[in-house]
Design a protein that fits this description.
The structure is a single chain. With 93 residues, this protein is mostly beta strands. The chain is built from no helices and 7 strands. It has one domain: Beta Barrel (Thrombin, subunit H), CATH 2.40.10. Helix content is 0%, strand content 61%. A hairpin with a 3-residue loop joins β3 and β4 (35-40).
């Protein structure tokens, strides 16, 4: 068990959606109002600004693309590829 304190400002919710990036695609692991964690096959450097789109079903409405921009706060190697944590600077429906 880790003694490090979590720096999360909002609750995270497990999600499994496609993430569309300029450099390819990924799959979300969790999503909150302040950020997203996703896996992808390419590492993205910490502190890099990233724009992405997350297609989401708005509960019986048409599919919409959540437009996100943010700063990469963490990148870790995982069994699925690379796990990337993005802190949102912009979030639009």
């Amino acid at each position: 068990m880790s003694d490090s304190k979590e720096n999360r400002l909002a609750g995270r919710y497990p999600t499994f959606c496609t993430v569309e990036l300029d450099s390819g695609t990924g799959v979300t692991r969790n999503l909150s109002t302040t950020g997203v964690c996703f896996t992808t096959d390419k590492a993205i450097e910490p502190d890099r600004m990233v724009r992405c789109f997350i297609p989401m079903d708005r509960t019986g409405r048409n599919m919409t693309r959540l437009r996100c921009e943010g700063r990469v706060v963490r990148t870790d190697k995982s069994e699925e590829g690379w796990e990337v944590a993005l802190n949102f600077t912009t979030l639009e429906w």
